[in-house]
Amino acid sequence: MISLEKKQLVLIEYNQHNMSQRQIAEKLKMSRNTVKKYIEQDLAARQQDTRNLPITDNYVTSPAYKKRNGKKRALTNTVMKRIREMMKQNKNKREVNMHKQQLKIIDIHEKLLDEGFKIGYTTVRNFVNREEKKEKEVFIRQEPTAGREIEFDWGEVKLFIDGKLRSLSMAVFTLAYSNDRYARLYESETMVCVQDAHVKCIEALGFVPNVFTYDNMRTVVKNFIGYDRFITDGMKSLSLHYHFQIRLCQPRKGNEKGHVERSVEYIRRKAFAHRDTFTSLEEAQEYLVSIIEKLNQRPHYLKEKTHHELMLEEKAERAGSLTAAPFDPAELVELRVDKYSTVTYRHNRYSVPEGHVGEYIKLKARAEEVLLFSEGECIAKHKRSWQVHVWVMNIYHYLNTLQKKKGALAQSECLSQAPKQIKNIYQRYYIGNEKDFLELLVYTKERDCLARVLEVITELEKNPLVQLTTEKIIFLAEQSAEVRTVLTGQDDVASQSLDNLSSLAALFHSKGTGVVH
Fold it and tell me: Which long-range contacts (CB under 8 A, 24 or more apart) does 221-227 make?
């Protein structure tokens, strides 16, 4: 192999000094055939117009031997045909959602060896990569328009709620045009939660985008028949109520809703990477709302406005789209009240006010609460439990029964689930005196004045000389704030006066209602 300098000398001697090929070979001590080859290459290159070809006129390239395309001895036509057959099997499996059972390249290589072919893994890998490269997907860049599309997806979040590690689902919406985001935490991904997330998102935005985009989640797609997909009844009802269209991504094509795919990871990291401990789910919800508001005030990476400002443009574009009343995302069932005065819904029991045992009532279950109806009237409301085999009790539902069975109060489930303030009152002042405690609860229920009763108890606790009784609490709760302030002074005279007034109040106290007249 000659050097680049010798090649240049050959061409200079031939073109400028008019030397023959033989003379050049003798002078440069080279083979005449080599001299002939480079002269002929130069003449051919000068005649070729390369302006429309993917090559350039390069005269400074060092001479190189031609690469010979040797015959492939291991990768024969038979082997290539067999590899393509196995690759086709993989493609068929992907089309029927069996992508986890595909053959990897190492599996294809082992199969070829089992069939008697002598071929290396590297050869198989290179051939498979070349074949797959022919089918590489091409992506089309989109330019969203204001108010047209919003994308929805779920993301998992693990938080410490009241000291316990819990796995929650975060519903995330992202407007394609503005990248404005909305998110909310849920304890499940059922239809009720999906609908509730949509209702709250639409209320927060103040308008209804024209198209909602989803992947093939089970709460949106009811079933597949061939290439056809059928929408669930719950999502049909929601879309008909708000008059929006539903667009479904192709299976395993998350890029078709790329805004929200990125938003799930982005919000989860920005919100909960720095803080993951909360006293309640409500506190976590409030914290998430504050983070979302901050993120939406950031500028868009392409447009010279914040996400919130761009969202307002979308709202103006879709003005008048939100005319319907809020959709009611709930499940309505009819249940029978059992002997414990509870109804069982999804493996959990919810207490019912006394007097309905054996009757059929209607239960309306929402994402965060459960309502109980009898003859069209709401008789009870509970916070919904998403666990199983849980008793959700309200102590006010059992007051009449407890007055007859006072000994059952101390170990009752309803007392253990009562508000912390009520349990503290019982444990401090009423253990062994359940009758007076229940009278106090009857009073707070009928007057709906638990907060006022707690204030009175706090004032009475300031004077250690005053004995705390139900009669005193009820009497003071009925008085005005001025009288209560005078009577709760710290001197002995006021304390004695308080005892005297309480005694008088007890004389006129109605045992039936627990109210001073």
Answer: 221/248
